[in-house]
Amino acid sequence: MTITFHGAARCVTGSKHLIKLNNGTQILLDCGLFQGMGEETEDLNGHFGFNPAKVDYLILSHAHIDHCGLIPRMVAEGFKGTIFSTAPTMDLARVLLDDSAGIQQQETESINEMRTRRGLSLFKPLYTEEDVMEAMRLFKIVDYNTDFEIEPRIKLRFTDAGHVIGSAAVHLTILEDAKYTQLTFSGDVGRYGDLLLKNPQSFPQADYIILESTYGDSFHQDMEPLEERLQEIINQTCNLKGGKLVIPAFSVGRTQELLYALNSLELRGLLPDFPYYVDSPLSQKATQVLREHTDVLNRGVKEVMKQDDDVFKFKGLKFIQSVEESRALVNDPRPSVIISSSGMAEAGRVKHHIRSVVSNDRNTILMVGYCEPSSLGGELIRGKKVVSIFGDEYDVRAEVRVIRSMSAHGDCDDLLKFLSCQDPEKVKALYLVHGEYDTQTVFRNRLLDIGFKEVRIPGQHQMEELE
């Protein structure tokens, strides 16, 4: 048995890990889109490093685009196997992949207009809406905490990873050469004490573990003061300075957490009286999916739901749908709070909002999640004084604030707690993925200190032989 790391290897996007059994069976863990990788991004997304037509099964940990975003491309290149996921993950994947296909089409059309004028050959999108439809036909739902037989000698179990709605850690029991092997893939591990979701679950003893490491070298701030921090930032920006607050936020997870926190402020009579906009049709669809799967929410949220049947809606909130409405919002100088995707500020409507506010010191840009260092969001977090947006340079005069405690990824302590159900002596090898290399090196030393014997940091397309 081998495993080859075709994505999220010494980086934080493009999750893809291919297991090959001695009998030829191939199992792919995730099939994510690379994002925010600069000039490398297009080439990375255009070449899998393996033949999709030869993959038998795809197991999807969750629906974030950096984990599911290349599934339709796999289908377009010949994949016809089964895709296993939880029910919420399937519903979210449908929404996100439809949106991604539309973006692919629009961007390709824009590029091809320029290439046509120059007499150059035309590009094709990574995939189409038809490819998405074909991919969704391949999904099969597997419930949490159920041993599901993929085929004789291969069993799958999902446990709740607490990262986003439907997220799961993947546990495989494989019988090969008269020997059982237990392999766990963490997917992305959430936080303990998350605002909305349940804690990550413990899991059976593994022989091999593939573990995300996004924040393996750092510690988040306490989640408790989130509502108060939002209130303070809104008051300072909109009330005292008369400016706009723009919040780049991922459509799945982060936007719903922000809405829940703002709704909580309203329930306590503390929500500042300004217009609140979610400028992302995708976020509205994702919020509706969460409303349809309330079983994944934690006890605290369910208690609030006893007095408020919609914890993602409050006075002054408006979801923006059309491009015309979005443009009008960009040009509206009045104080307001605008939540818009994407979370890294690399694409989507939020770039237009940032362009309109970034050079005015009355405004604030609030970053609330992980950003690739080379992304626009990463540059703002690092304090760059001049940023490029749509090919033009802009002075950064707006205040840039960061709330790191809102990350859906567990920090070092959370990851160690996730592993606390394991006996390190029984783990033959632990592979760190989904993290920057410097971070992984620090985290690797921490894992060695607590007793894990083999902690490896695979590179892109690196193959490992499992005993």
From TrEMBL:
UniProt entry tagged with the keyword Hydrolase: yes
One annotated GO molecular function: RNA endonuclease activity
Keywords carried by this UniProt record: Hydrolase
Domain Metallo-beta-lactamase: 13-250
Top-level taxon of origin: Bacteria
Domain Beta-Casp: 255-380
SUPFAM superfamilies: Metallo-hydrolase/oxidoreductase
UniProt entry tagged with the keyword Hydrolase: yes
Range of residues in the leader sequence: none
Pfam families recorded: Beta-Casp, Lactamase_B, RMMBL
Stated name of the protein: MBL fold metallo-hydrolase
Organism: Pararcticibacter amylolyticus
